[in-house]
TrEMBL record:
Protein name: DNA-(apurinic or apyrimidinic site) lyase
Annotated GO biological process: base-excision repair; nucleotide-excision repair
Molecular function per GO: class I DNA-(apurinic or apyrimidinic site) endonuclease activity; damaged DNA binding; oxidized purine nucleobase lesion DNA N-glycosylase activity
Membership in a protein family: Belongs to the type-1 OGG1 family.
Keyword terms: DNA damage, DNA repair, Glycosidase, Hydrolase, Lyase, Multifunctional enzyme
One Pfam family hit: OGG_N
Lineage: Bacteria, Bacillati, Bacillota, Clostridia, Peptostreptococcales
Entry's EC annotation: 4.2.99.18
Reactions catalysed, as given in the entry: 2'-deoxyribonucleotide-(2'-deoxyribose 5'-phosphate)-2'-deoxyribonucleotide-DNA = a 3'-end 2'-deoxyribonucleotide-(2,3-dehydro-2,3-deoxyribose 5'-phosphate)-DNA + a 5'-end 5'-phospho-2'-deoxyribonucleoside-DNA + H(+)
Top-rank taxon: Bacteria
Presence of the UniProt keyword Zinc in the record: no
Organism: Tepidibacter thalassicus DSM 15285
Length: 292
DNA sequence: CGTCAGGTGCGAT
DNA sequence: ATCGCACCTGAC
């Protein structure tokens, strides 16, 4: 892997297991958008980053080598050997082999706990375009102005303090629907009650999950997503409608409860459950597996 | 118009 | 423990 800096960008050559489409469209993030030139622009940690892959070269636009090492290396999980993970998963069976090959460029991002908690509360019984719109509205209306990139203005995700200062109605008007009161509650708990969700990642997976489940609007699926996408808990298996479909298509004879599917996944995939879930989810959703 | 979407809370069993 | 139902909202 060769990394070097050019004018306002970092160029990475020969990086394995990194495909922007797979990373940004496997359901783990909501603030990355496809541009006309087939690049993706996102807001992360109050910064605007643009990613473009051409042949085997990846361009990290609007950043520098310092930020690359201090922020993006961790965010994109670049220290992890995904080839090794993929090889282990591929050996399990032919279904997983297909799914892993289909989404071979997936990386599980290390995202901000607070932003992910609220984002996945919004995701409950919701569609991706609506989730993205609600998060964008919250940021545009109540986040900090960051700057412009290609003639578009960008805003950070509102802090717990800012979110707590809003009324339920102001949150609702951003398009969050019945989840507005959950967001209001979570903001109060995190900001006013000084609950440090940034320490949850230090707990073991079961305790971490137990803590998250105490938030109203956080059920089993949302808790698993928050743990997996922002707290480095990889021995968990979020089961949503797509994972249920693909598991029933590949592994299960009958229709099991979501919790039983989760337990089945964790017992089958162990420490790699979270990675397996991502490959299966992306495969199922892109191909419409099991859709009625 | 009804249905449904990357679930969850709630009350009833 | 497990089950069934309502739920903001907008696209079909």
């Amino acid at each position: 892997m060769k990394i070097y800096e050019e004018k306002n960008r970092v160029v990475v050559e020969n990086m394995k297991d990194f495909e922007p489409k797979h990373i940004f469209e496997c359901g783990q993030c909501f603030r990355w958008n496809l541009e006309d030139d087939n690049s993706y622009t996102g807001v992360v940690f109050g910064k605007i980053l643009n990613i473009k892959k051409e042949d085997d070269i990846i361009y990290f636009n609007n950043t520098n080598l310092n930020e690359f090492h201090n922020i993006w290396y961790k965010y994109f999980d670049l220290e992890r050997d995904y080839t090794n993970i993929k090889n282990k998963l591929k050996k399990i069976d032919n279904y997983l082999e297909k799914a892993v090959e289909f989404g071979g460029g997936i990386r599980i991002l290390n995202q901000d706990e607070w932003e992910i908690l609220i984002s996945f509360i919004i995701s409950a019984n919701n569609r991706i375009p609506m989730i993205k719109k609600a998060i964008e509205n919250l940021s545009k209306n109540y986040g900090e102005y960051i700057g412009e990139f290609r003639d578009k203005k960008y805003y950070s995700f509102p802090s717990p303090k800012k979110m707590n200062s809003l009324s339920e109605d102001e949150i609702r008007k951003c398009g969050t629907g019945f989840r507005a009161k959950y967001i209001k509650d979570a903001s109060f708990i995190v900001y006013r009650q000084n609950c440090d969700i940034y320490k949850y990642k230090n707990l073991d997976t079961d305790m971490c999950r137990k803590e998250l489940l105490q938030f109203c609007g956080v059920g089993p699926k949302v808790a698993d997503c928050v743990m997996l996408f922002s707290m480095q808990k990889y021995d968990t298996f979020p089961v949503d409608v797509w994972v249920k479909r693909v598991m029933e298509e590949f592994y299960l004879e009958e229709s099991l409860s979501l919790n039983k599917i989760r337990n089945y996944g964790i017992s089958k995939f162990g420490k790699l459950s979270g990675f397996a879930q991502q490959y299966l989810f992306y495969y199922a959703r892109e191909l419409g597996i099991g859709k009625k």
